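Internal tracking record. Fields below are filled automatically when a chain is submitted to the structure queue. Please do not edit lines marked as system-generated. If the sequence contains nonstandard residues, flag them in the REMARKS field before resubmitting.
Queue: standard
Priority: normal
Entity type: single polypeptide chain
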Amino acid sequence: MSKVVVSIFSQVRDHLKADDSVNNTVYFRPYEDICAFLENYAAQEEGQKKRMVWLSKGCSQGLANLVPSAQRIMELSPVALLKAVKNPTELEGFKQCHVR
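SYSTEM-GENERATED OUTPUT FOLLOWS
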């Protein structure tokens, strides 16, 4: 993976004090521009291939339809997989929250 684009509201970006990019790998875009960005990004080619777009399974049908189905990746993202890994403190918290 060479590039990640995150669409966020400007208020969130201001709160995070985020620049337009982090290490030229993660790029922040205004949420209001997501539809136009997805259409344009999916239409561009890298070499001889169309770009692939990783979308969340929970994204709206409207957003998913902006990207041709052959270019969509609708699987768990590496971020979701990493969030599923719990450390010992989190595991103990899960156990304790069910004890009465």
